[in-house]
Amino acid sequence: MAIAKAERLMNLALCLLGTRRPLSKRELRGSIEAYLEAGSDDSFNRMFERDKDDLRELGLVIETVDNLDGETGYLARRDSNRLPAITLDAEEAAALGLAAKVWQQARLAGAASGALQKLRAAGMPEAEDSYEAQHSALEPRIPVHEAAFEPLMLACRDRRPVVFDYRKANAARPEPRHVEPWTLECWRGHWYLAGWDRDRGAERVFRLSRITGRVRSRAGSFTAPVPDVVTVRETVETWAGETATRSARIRLRTGCGYPLRSRAQSIRELGDGWDELEIPYGHGLDAWLVEFGPDVVVLEPADLRADVLDRLRAVAKG
Questions:
Q1: What is the pLDDT of residue 287?
Q2: DSSP secondary-structure letter at 45?
């Protein structure tokens, strides 16, 4: 059974790599013997979708193209699936080894380990791990707990539109979002997706912890241009609250809210267990303040106070 599947995957990969134009499901079914033996259209469709996902997991870049008749075609361009010769010195090899350690507790652990094994088999030098010897008490980690991370990471890589249910911080119920994913960014311990929101016709940033249910992929290509990496990163920082445009004044319970205190421009003791802080105010600050619950009271500006109250009321309603 394993040999039959491996042969089927190889034949599908060869078909996609050997064509100069996109091939439809119908054409692929007529070209691969295992697909011809499928008992029904539903059985073939399930088999093909699994095989296509397996090839993408293995690193094959498969493009989907809609023709004039509205039929979806598939191909794997050779220039998108060809790697240049890889030459690494000892320091570069050590850097890759350190990067692989970062993902050891995430879903990318297997992929990172497999990539290192392939590079070593291709001649990458075995660098002495000076980091391990000198800093064994410190272990680099990027936590990834959200189930949406892996499908979104693959969708960003393959430039595939997605659909998911998203609950805003001030909303009682999630709503569907149709998104063209650009990139994932980690900021303050939370993962964010930056992309093009088709329903709103604008770029948006989504916090992965607020995505509910399953992330579903959709056929077709992107409708909006993808910005360069710097622009996307700036978008994530802006929507997550990194870029401050003015200041806000809050009351904070004594001994609480150390992340807020670390960013404060000034702190004044009020007595009775409260301090007054002036902190930078940018987009997303209202969502961050809500996380501190009853330990924070917004004094000004009025629009920030109103936004925080709206979010708290939404949480109270469930």
A1: 80
A2: H
